[in-house]
Specification:
heterodimer; A: Glutaconate Coenzyme A-transferase; three-stranded antiparallel sheet; 12 helices; 32% helix; 24% strand; globular; B: seven-stranded mixed sheet; 21% helix
Chain lengths: 296, 261
């Protein structure tokens, strides 16, 4: 009998493969398509001293609040409709975490360099700004060609692990993202030693189930180590076209940041013992998947 | 002429930044810049490239907020392509930094010491890349010395005309900060050594008020004018682009367009 490739796994098994001190890239963008089911599994774990890389949203604030973070690497941390992420803000204002604050595009270049396995990519981005002051490890290079231009050498940002949330996946590790913007999930997957994806739907074969939309496959399955079925797994962030972000929930999360022991209150109220418990506490997967897509 | 608000006057002034820009990607962040980009597209610059603020290119500017009509998309513009467009240089963004200094350097990262900020804000976002890659203008809804700071901004996120900040001590010739529209006036960088210069005052505003609200010396245009007032046609388009009147909350207390003396 032929052996079948099957990458299906569970949230617990994925988090069991993570180690304290790892550098973890988290896909999505601000309050959009964050792998929150995996983030919650990390929040419930004993992991610590993590370096978290990404286009930051509430996952960065939550991981800071729970004491999981040694360092953040980001261009921004924001929930867009609520511009300032409250627990990220608190961690920064208390000086609790190390940071590498970058330009959004530089973050892209750093991930690309890692994915291309080159030490750096040259760019003008960052010149003339305090990005160089506050990232003292960054170096300038002079073009070896006739122009002799001075450029920033954006170093590769290799990841131990990338965590992504997608719309569809199959047991082989094929994925499709049906939202309007795939963001930089592809670059995360390429920059990482291993990539784990959660998905709204997991099928036996994407070729059979939705091969017509194969153009929505943004990175090849050979980059994917594990696939977890996690409907509503982006909550409280959005997963267009399936559901929008949960504005009410995120406002309560923001309110928690203003309370004494607010993070503990939030965690006690919502986090639960596992993802099924979480979903029940926030109103069920039916509530999540009916959240309207915001019109901006 | 009908009455108009200061927000509407500012929208018209902001739309002007894209007048002679041709086929660039117009990015307006925030209520007034966004309406202004749509106004520019529908009046003096029909070539402007615009997005829906999410991931698609559109040819008909979208009204802000909840709307009945479904947007029609002419192209796809996910963030990865936005960066490609930024680096290619055919873009003119209109953004609102929290602090601006006399060099045109802008800050949205944090206030205070970067290592342990007094107030953490968004992070540098795309400001470094925008500032060195394409033309930029600014909209400041509250012109005061906490925004237009003495000295330098706390964190230089967008590069400016400060030679000391550049690797070889020379400001790149390609750096192009075009205009600053505030709730008091319109300024450009036509002063000595790209110094900030007042080019028009909003109706009823005096030069002394602008100077008192600015933490550094300002140059003044020899041809100082009053900022043009919105026309009926412009006001009608603004109302269409902003049916929920979000512009009423864009400048504190929603003052009238002509300041009472």
């Amino acid at each position: 009998m032929t052996r079948q490739l099957d990458k299906r796994t569970s949230l617990a098994e994925v988090v069991g493969q993570l180690k304290s001190g790892m550098t973890i890239g988290i896909g999505g963008w601000g309050p959009r398509r964050k792998p929150m089911a995996l983030v919650r599994a990390i929040l419930r774990s004993d992991l610590k001293d993590l370096t978290i890389v990404g286009y930051g949203g509430p996952e960065m604030g939550m991981l800071c609040a729970a004491g999981k973070v040694k360092k953040l690497v980001y261009g921004f941390v924001s929930m867009d409709f609520i511009p300032l992420e409250p627990f990220f803000r608190r961690a920064r204002e208390r000086g609790e975490v190390a940071v590498s604050e970058l330009d959004e595009g530089l973050l892209n270049l750093g991930l690309r360099a890692a994915g291309m396995r080159v030490p750096f990519l040259p760019t003008r981005v960052g010149l003339g700004t305090d990005l160089l002051t506050h990232n003292p490890e960054l170096r300038l290079v002079r073009s070896p060609y006739a122009d002799e231009e001075t450029l920033l050498a954006m170093p590769a940002i290799p990841l131990d692990v990338a965590l992504l949330h997608v719309d569809y996946a199959d047991r082989l590790g094929n994925t499709q993202i049906h939202g309007p913007d795939p963001f930089f999930d592809e670059q995360m997957a390429r920059a990482a030693e291993r990539t784990f994806v959660t998905a709204e739907y997991v099928v036996d074969s994407l070729a059979e189930a939705c091969g017509d939309s194969a153009k929505r496959n943004y990175f090849e399955r050979s980059l994917v180590s594990g696939v977890v079925y996690a409907p509503g797994g982006a909550h409280p962030t959005s997963c267009a076209p399936h559901y929008g972000w949960d504005a009410k929930h995120l406002k309560d999360y923001v309110a928690a940041a203003g309370e004494d022991d607010g993070w503990q209150r939030y965690a006690n109220q919502y986090l639960g013992r596992d993802e099924a418990d979480y979903l029940q506490r926030v109103g069920g997967v039916g509530h999540v998947t009916q959240l309207p897509i915001p019109v901006l | 002429m009908s009455e108009f608000t200061l927000s509407e006057l500012a929208i018209v002034a902001c739309a002007e930044v894209w007048r002679d820009e041709g086929e660039v990607l117009a990015t307006g962040i925030g209520t007034i810049p966004r309406i202004a980009a749509g106004l520019a597209r529908l009046t003096h610059n029909p070539a402007l490239l615009m997005t829906d603020g999410e991931a698609y290119l559109i040819e008909e500017p979208l009204p802000l907020g909840p709307r009945e009509e479904k947007a029609k998309f002419s192209g796809w513009m996910p963030y990865s392509r936005v960066f490609d467009a930024v680096w290619r240089g055919r873009r003119h963004a209109l953004v609102t930094p929290t602090q601006v200094d006399r060099f045109g350097q802008g800050n949205i990262s944090c206030i205070g010491d970067f290592k342990k900020p007094k107030v953490q804000m968004l992070g540098m976002r795309g400001f470094p890349g925008n500032s060195i890659s394409h033309t930029n203008s600014m909209f400041i809804p509250g012109h005061n010395p906490r925004v237009f700071v003495a000295g330098e901004v706390d964190v230089v996120c967008s590069a400016g005309y400060n030679p000391a900040r550049w690797p070889d001590g020379r400001v790149p010739a390609s750096l192009d900060i075009r205009r600053i529209v505030t709730d008091l006036c319109v300024m450009d960088f036509g002063g000595p050594d790209h110094g900030i210069r007042v080019v028009s005052l909003h109706p009823g505003v005096t030069l002394d008020e602008v100077r008192a609200a600015t933490g550094f010396e300002l140059a003044v245009s020899a041809d100082l004018r009053e900022t043009p007032r919105p026309t009926e046609e412009q006001l009608a388009i603004i109302r269409r682009l902003d049916p929920h009147n979000l512009r009423a909350a864009a400048i504190k207390n929603n003052p009238p367009g002509i300041r009472a003396r």
